[in-house]
């Protein structure tokens, strides 16, 4: 099993690319964003809190929050159905839904495992095996527990404190890798894949951590005209309500990537644009296959890319918003060859 991580600013084509890659006979793309590696309280945060950021309180909080995150990501069937129902109802009245109301992405609806009624992780690993791996991981990093609390604990009956170990980077990275490999290999075996692709957009923000976690892994950055990204952000609950909200998020994401990629081996990452994926599909996918060490598979050409919404910014953004994007993100537009408006 070899991992490929797809990342971007969000609304840049990560899901579309993931779906295309999944059509290759040697690739299985996880049909949802797994979140447990790069999200807040995921493995990335846990790594810092158990190494250079360690103290007894950070350690307790990190392992507690990580355990809670994994519980949220693979809930019981009943709780999963509650989450989905609450998500559909609460968002209509502008109330935030339960944490991680994850479903499989609709782009995978033609796959035999696609079913909105079952927990997404069930497509790659059974729930007992998932928590067996999680519990084995927790046993390695939690060295004790006692009755007690600290000032930042909060109200809870019968509070307990977990004693998390302080580790050197190599050891905790080894434990984290074993957990991810266990989950990903279950998917590889279940679907007969040589490569497991994961398409959480914020993979881009944590490229160095992912490179340390899997030195043999690959990262694909898919980007698009930032004006189209801003146009799409305005319609997302997490993306802000205006270009003024969205531009700083996108700008800092891309600037962080520009710095992080300097620390990565050149053969470990590849950058492509959504526009070239749409206009030169075969050539772009052939380059991607070569990058991943695979032969080209014509099945990948089955994906319909006619609705890529390229140039939507021309009707969605005002002149003032276009000027803002081009002023703040002009450095990226020049780097990638996007023409400025007149």
Describe the structure.
With 342 residues, the chain is an alpha/beta fold. The protein folds into two domains: 175 residues, Rossmann fold (3-Layer(aba) Sandwich), CATH 3.40.50.300; 138 residues, no CATH class. The strands form two sheets. A five-stranded parallel β-sheet has the order 2-5-1-6-7, sandwiched between helices. Strands 3-4 form a two-stranded antiparallel sheet. The model has no long low-confidence stretch (mean pLDDT 97).
What key attributes describe this structure?
alpha/beta, 342 residues, Rossmann fold, single chain, 2 domains
SSE diagram, text form:
Elements: E1 2-7, H1 14-22, E2 27-29, H2 43-49, H3 56-73, H4 77-90, H5 127-141, E3 142-147, E4 160-164, H6 169-191, E5 195-198, H7 207-213, E6 218-223, H8 226-233, H9 243-260, E7 269-273, H10 274-279, H11 281-292, H12 313-316, H13 319-328, H14 330-336
Parallel strand pairs: 1-5, 1-6, 2-5, 6-7
Antiparallel strand pairs: 3-4
At CATH level 3, the topology of the largest domain is Rossmann fold
**Overall 3D form:** globular
Q: What's the total number of strands?
A: 7
Biggest sheet: strand arrangement: 2-5-1-6-7
Mean pLDDT: 97
Radius of gyration using CA atoms only = 21 Å
Distance between the termini: 49 Å
In N-to-C order, the SSE pattern is: EHEHHHHEEHEHEHHEHHHHH
> How many structural domains can be distinguished in the coordinates?
2
Let me know the largest β-sheet: 5 strands, parallel
- Report the total helices: 14
| Beta-strand residue percentage | 5-15%
Can I get a quick summary?
By secondary structure, the chain is an alpha/beta fold.
């Amino acid at each position: 099993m070899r991992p490929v991580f797809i990342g971007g600013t969000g609304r840049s084509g990560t899901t579309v690319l993931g779906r295309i890659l999944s059509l290759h006979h040697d690739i299985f793309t996880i049909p949802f964003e797994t979140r447990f590696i790069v999200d807040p309280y995921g493995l990335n945060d846990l790594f810092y809190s158990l190494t250079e950021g360690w103290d007894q309180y950070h350690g307790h909080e990190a392992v507690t929050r990580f355990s809670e995150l994994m519980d949220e990501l693979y809930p019981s069937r009943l709780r999963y159905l509650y989450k989905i129902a609450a998500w559909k109802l609460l968002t209509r009245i502008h109330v935030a839904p339960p944490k991680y109301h994850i479903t499989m992405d609709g782009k995978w609806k033609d796959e035999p495992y696609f079913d909105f009624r079952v927990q997404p992780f069930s497509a790659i690993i059974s729930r007992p095996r998932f928590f067996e791996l999680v519990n084995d991981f927790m046993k390695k990093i939690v060295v004790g527990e006692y009755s007690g609390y600290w000032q930042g604990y909060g109200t809870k009956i019968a509070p307990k404190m977990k004693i998390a170990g302080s580790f050197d980077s190599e050891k905790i990275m080894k434990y984290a890798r074993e957990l991810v490999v266990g989950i990903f290999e279950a998917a590889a075996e279940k679907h007969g894949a040589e490569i497991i692709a994961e398409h959480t957009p914020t993979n881009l923000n944590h490229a160095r951590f992912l490179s340390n976690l899997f030195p043999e892994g690959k990262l694909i950055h898919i980007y698009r005209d930032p004006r189209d990204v801003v146009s799409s952000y305005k319609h997302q609950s997490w993306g802000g309500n205006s270009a003024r909200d969205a531009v700083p998020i996108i700008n800092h994401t891309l600037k962080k990537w520009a710095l992080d990629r300097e620390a990565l081996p050149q053969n470990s990452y590849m950058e492509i644009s959504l526009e070239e994926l749409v206009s030169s599909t075969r050539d772009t996918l052939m380059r991607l296959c070569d990058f991943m060490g695979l032969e080209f598979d014509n099945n990948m050409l089955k994906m319909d890319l006619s609705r890529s919404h390229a140039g939507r910014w021309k009707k969605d953004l005002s002149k003032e918003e276009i000027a803002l994007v081009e002023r703040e993100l002009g450095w990226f537009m020049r780097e990638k060859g996007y023409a400025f408006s007149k």
